[in-house]
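Name: Ser/Thr protein kinase RdoA involved in Cpx stress response, MazF antagonist
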Amino acid sequence: MTGLYQDAFLRELQEGVTTIMGGWGIPADAQIQLLEISENATFLASAPGDGQRWVLRVYRPGYRSIPEIRSELHWIQLLRAEEIIRTPAVLPSMDGGYDHLSFLSSSAGPLAVACFEYVYGRAPTLEDDQVALLRQIGGISARLQEHVRRWQPPPGFTRKLWDFQTMLGRQAYWGDWRCALGLDARGKRLLEEAVLWIFDRIQRYGQSSDRFGLIHGDLRAANLLMDAEGLQVIDFDDSGLSWFGMDFAGAISFIETEVDIPLLQEAFLDGYRQIRQLQREDVYMLPVFVLARRLQLTAWVASHHETPTAKALGEQFTQGTIYLADSLMAHRS
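Structure predicted for Ser/Thr protein kinase RdoA involved in Cpx stress response, MazF antagonist:
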C-alpha cells in the first residue's frame, strides 16, 4: 500500500517551490525545508543573512478546488482585517494573480501554492495547562461563530460541507472508517453501532443556522501557536460548513483517549459562554461530535498512512477509537 507523499514526490514539490517562490519576493538563495505533511505539504523558506522566513503551502492534488482555496484565503484576510482572531497574514504574490495564489508544475499536474507570514511561537503540548488552553479555544470558537452569524459571504465563496455523509459515509472525504488499520470483526460491529447512534443524534439535532455554519474545523494544538499575547490560529484548510460543536471535537483531536474529556469540555464551554450562549441540546451533542471526529480521524490515518502522523499512530489509534466508542456509548442518551 503506497500513498501520495513518497520521498520522490516530496523532492519534486520542494524543487517546484524554489521555481516559484520569487513571486513572493523570496530570494533565490533561500533555504527550503519541509515543515509538515498532512493533507497538504508545507515548506519553510529561510533567507540567508537577515533570516527572514516564509511559510509555503502546496495544496494536495485533487482535494481542494481553486474557488475553495481562494475562499479560505479570503476568510483569513477578513478575520485579520476585523481583528476577530490572531492569525498569520496571507502574502500577496507580486503578480497579484488568483488572489494570492501561484502554481507549480508537478507529475500530479499544476498545484496551487499559497504563502503565509511566518510567526513565532510554539504549539501547545500536553505538558501545558489543558484547562486554560481549552478555555482560550472556546473563546476563539465563539468569536469565529459570532462573526459567521453576522457575515454575508461574497458571491462565489465556497468551502466543503462537513456533514454525516462527507465525514462518515461510504464516500467520506477522508476515507471509509471501515478501512481502519487493524480493525477486526468485533471492533467493526461496535463502531457500526456507534455510527448508527451518531446518525440518529445528528438527524434529530438538525442543521439550523444557530448550530450549523462556517467553522475552522481543526482547532487542535498543532494549529495553534502560543506567544506572550495568547494564541494565534493557523491552517484553515479544514474550514467548512459543519456543526459549531465540531470545533470542540477538533480541539481534542488525536488526544481523546489521553485527556479528561468532561473536564476539557467544561473549560471549552466556560470560554465559549463568555462570548456566546449555547442551548442545552448543543452541549448534549458535544460527545457525539467528539466520537464522529475520532472516527473521521481513524479513516484519515488509514487513507494517509504515508504521513508521519499516521505512521506514528498506526493500529493503536484504531484500538483507541474502539475504546472511546465503547466508553461514550455506555453513557449515551
